[in-house]
Please model this.
Amino acid sequence: MYKCAIILAAGEGKRMNSKTPKVMHKVCGKEMINHVIDVMRNADIEMVDVVIGRGAAQVKIGTEDRKINYSVQEEQLGTGHAVMCAKEFLGNNKGTVAIFVGDGPLITESTVRELLNYHEKGNFKATILTSKMNDPAKYGRIIRDENGEVKKIVEFKDCTEGEILVKEVNSGMYCFDIEELLNSLNKLNNNNAQKEYYLTDVIGILKNQGSKVGAFNASIEEITAVNSKVELADAQAIMRKRINRKHMENGVTIMDPSNTYIDCEVMIGKDTIIYPGNVLQGKTIIKEDCVLYPNNRIADSVLDNGIEIQSSVVIESQIGEKTTVGPFAYIRPESSIGKQARIGDFVEIKKSTIGDNTKVSHLTYIGDAQVGSGCNFGCGTVVVNYDGISKYKTIIGNNVFIGCNTNLVAPVTINDNSYTAAGSTITNEVPKNALSIARARQKNIENWVVKSGHSK
Ligand code: UD1
Ligand code: CA
Model:
C-alpha cells in the first residue's frame, strides 16, 4: 500500500526563546527535524514532506541533503492548517500518511513500523500513538467513550476539569487514511482556546462519522516533545543514554555514561576505553583499542587503532595508529598526524601533516607545514607561518632534529637528517645532513659585575 509521511515543522517554538527555529535545535549533534526524517526513512517511508513556515529558509538548508519534499504554511494557524498546506503533496494518492511533529526527536524506527502495521492490519482510518503519563502536563488528552474506544482528543487548554485528569495523552504522531483525512480537514474550525485549526479535531470528526479510530501505546520516552530548552536537555539525556548503550553493547568501555557526550553519528571500535568528560562530535570515527583519557573534544575526526589521548581538542583531522596526544594539545582542521607519533602538552598543530614516529613533545606551534617521519621537535619550537598578510609553507624532511626554541620562518625548507641548534631562527633552507646554527655566539665579559659596580 502507498505510504508517505508529513512532518510538521512550521511553528515558531516561542517557548524555546531562541533565534533558531525550534526543529533546528540539535539533540546529540543532529537537528530534531532530521532525527524525525531519518526515522521515517529507516522505517521505509520514502516520500517525506516537511511543512515549513517560521524559519523556513533555515529548515530547508538544514534538511537539504535528505532530499525531501516541502510544503509551505505561510501563517501558523494550527497543526490542522499545517496539514492542509500539504494537500498537494498528498494529491490523489490512496493509502496511509504518517503525520509526525517535528519536535518529537525520540521516536524510534521500530515504533513507527509497529504503528503503521497496527493501523493497516486493524483497518483504522486513523491511529493515534498515545502514552500514559502520571504528569500529562500540556499534552492533548485522549478521551475515550464508555466502551473504551477513542472518542476525541482535547487540547490541554480546552480541557474540562474532568478531562484534565486523563492520563492518556496524544503524542502528536498518527497514521491516517489519506482520503478520510483530506475530507475531515475541510470540516475543521478554530472555535477553541487558541483560535487554531487543530489536527487533533480530525479524530472527533472521524469518530462522529462512524470511521474506525485506533490508539497504539508507546513509551513516554519516545513521545517526549521538546518545547523549551529544559525539555531539550531532557531529550538529550535520553538520546545520550541510548547512544552510549549502543556503543557499550558493541564492545566499547564507557567509564561513566552519564558524563560522556557522543553525537549520534559517531562510530567507535571495540575495546576502546572512554573516561569521563569526553565530547565526541559530528562524523568522528574512533577505531579499536583507543584510550580516551578524561576531557577531550574530538569533532569530525578519524582516530586510528590504539591511540591514546588526554585533555585535548581535535577538529577535522586524522591521527594514525598508536599515536599519543596530549595532555592539552590542540589539533586544528586539515591536520594529519602519522602512526606512532607523539603530540605532547601545549602543542598546537594547524593545517599540517606530521609523519610517522615524529615527536612534538612540548610547547610547540606547527602551522601550514609538511613534516616527515622520524623527526624530533625540541621544546618551544615555533613555525612562523604568518607575516601579518599571508601564510607560508614550511617543509621539513625525514629524521630532522629541531633544537629547542627554534623559530622556522616560512617559507622555508629543512632537508632530511639535518639539525637546527637550540635557539636558532631559521630563515634559509637547511641542506641535508647539515647542522644549522642561527644565533649570536656567546660572549662572556669577565668580571663585568665588579667593574660596572653591580656587586652587592
Ligand atoms: C501538539 C498536539 C497535542 C500533542 C502535542 C504532542 C495539536 C493541536 N496539539 O501540541 O495534542 O499532545 O503536540 O507533542 O496538534 N506546527 C506547524 N504549524 C502550526 C502549528 C504547529 O507546523 O501552525 C508544528 C510545530 O512546528 C511543531 C508541531 O506542529 O513541530 C507541534 O506544534 P506545537 O505548537 O508544539 O503543538 P503542541 O501544543 O505541543
Ligand atoms: Ca509540541
